């Protein structure tokens, strides 16, 4: 176990997401004294997401209640969905509503302010141990052979069910993601309206208007003529 911890302290980078400057700087100082590397400090959820996209820290300590339009929990959901980076929440609140929101984000830890250095250190070690245990096949999960090239700019990762535009994930809804799943499982083939609708909505009768609206929304996000309509039959994505 000590070898694992020595490795962590030398090689793990931590992102601190905290809008209380004094607290953030104090935490940075404590973590550096423990031997960790600090990827950076961000004070808003959007900056945290941008930071993760560029620098890919190994673990994140995030305040739930951040200033701005996006909450810490919303940022955590997006980061976990697209990057699978473990997150420890830091908050002043322990009420049931806050805890429920936090749990929905699948955090690896939940600390109440003010927390002691040893509590923070233990939470980080436990989070990293759990993450490495549950994601010991993370290399397979990230392998490039799981990427399907759809155009010169767009790729679909089958393992993660994520669409990338120029290596950056495109934010899609659950139904939009399901649309890509079924079309990419049948590249070059026309998938009928009925089959697509059944896969996405689990309905025995399909609503063509609802499906067309979904296709339209996806095309607006993709901004490329990727999904082709086959007259009165269905949709398809061509192989390249």
From TrEMBL:
UniProt domain Response regulatory: residue ranges: 13-128
GO molecular function, one term: phosphorelay response regulator activity
A Gene Ontology biological process term: regulation of DNA-templated transcription
Transmembrane segments: none
PROSITE patterns: OMPR_PHOB (PS51755), RESPONSE_REGULATORY (PS50110)
Top-level taxonomic group: Bacteria
UniProt keyword Transferase, yes or no: no
Name of this protein: Signal transduction protein
GO CC terms of this entry: cytosol; protein-DNA complex
Species for this entry: Malaciobacter molluscorum LMG 25693
Acyltransferase found in the keyword field: no
SMART domains: REC, Trans_reg_C
Residue ranges constituting the OmpR/PhoB-type domain according to the UniProt record: 145-239
Keyword terms of this UniProt record: DNA-binding, Phosphoprotein, Two-component regulatory system
Modified residues (4-aspartylphosphate): 63
